[in-house]
């Protein structure tokens, strides 16, 4: 659901843009300014180097060419302007002021090989007291909106609140990159060569750049002012531009959709996204399971990854033991493996609702963190004497 298109206000954009000489401006030729890193970009402090008599100055990374000087970027503007609802020179001016971001190039790539995944450590990043306390405050403040979203879309209030908490710590961490810079970098300067196992996702980001430019035009937003994650996700729920245009809703009823400044719009939009991606009211997200000892049998269950494709009888036919609720589940399941560093992995049998959470972020670790945060948040809220989740929502997990 989107707001009917409105032209981009020229006072926000063209007043200063079209007066800039695109080819020779010192501003456009300057190296890209460093942008603040998002919460996903933190890293340990480097160990100080040993002192030497003569300190060599570190070599500066080569600056990427300014986009106003790039023939391929200007060709994109010329080819796409009409379809995106811009004038040719208008879109050239916008893209010329985008800045390539080497930090974005670094963050989009997977971590170095050889690092063992650790579900326990991942869980502790999110299911922790400060974030849970913030979740209780968010739920108390927006109880009516969360209840209305649950009634409208069938998604439990704790799941909606959990996603917003995991994504942005309830609006505290929404990203400091200009979205135009991030999406332009990932469209025109996707890292190359790629490390083993990585793939070129520039076609995806090219479409998201198009969606972002349309989004700005439709909603009268300044594309040079909007900030988000290094991947271009925005707002309380970290929606990519395409998801914003397809799934965001005006849940506060003020006549326009604002996922950056309206947590109520974010609440409705998260619930709508999950429903449109297959959320089934009342269905648990997963069940307990004991996996077979045989490696080949276990591999047979893991072959579909997070996509539910096997029923309970097929699980048990290769030696897996489901909980009584899991054996009674009417629908496909997927064996989810969560590695624990050097310890034995954790396994659960994921349902369609587990898979739906992975459509928000395609990671089983992310999905389980959201689910466990939701369960813990609901338990904490119940312990405070607040209204417990409605019976129609169903538990997140079965026994």
Note down, in words, how this protein is organized.
The chain has helices at residues 10-17, 26-29, 71-84, 88-96, 102-107, 119-126, 129-141, 143-153, 157-168, 179-188, 202-218, 241-247, 263-276, 295-302, 312-317, 324-327, 352-358, 364-383, and strands spanning 177-178, 227-228, 286-290, 321-322, 334-340, 343-350. By secondary structure, it is α+β, with helices and mostly antiparallel strands. Among the domains are: 71-100 and 178-233, Bacterial muramidase (Helicase, Ruva Protein, domain 3, Orthogonal Bundle); 286-393, no CATH class. A four-stranded antiparallel beta sheet has the order 4-3-6-5. Strand 5 and strand 6 form a beta hairpin. The longest helix has 20 residues, at 364-383. It is globular. Residues 1-59 have low confidence and may be disordered.
Main-sheet strand order equals: 4-3-6-5
Range of strand content: 5-15%
Please give the largest β-sheet. 4 strands, antiparallel
Query: Which H/E pattern describes the elements?
Result: HHHHHHHHHEHHEHHEHHEHEEHH
Tell me, rounded to a whole number, the average pLDDT.
85
Shape: globular
Distance between the termini: 37 Å
- Low-pLDDT regions: 1-59
- Share of helix among residues? 40-55%
Number of beta-strand segments: 6
Helix and strand content put the structural class at alpha+beta
What is the count of DSSP helices, taking H or I runs of 4+ residues? 18
Rg, alpha carbons:
24 Å
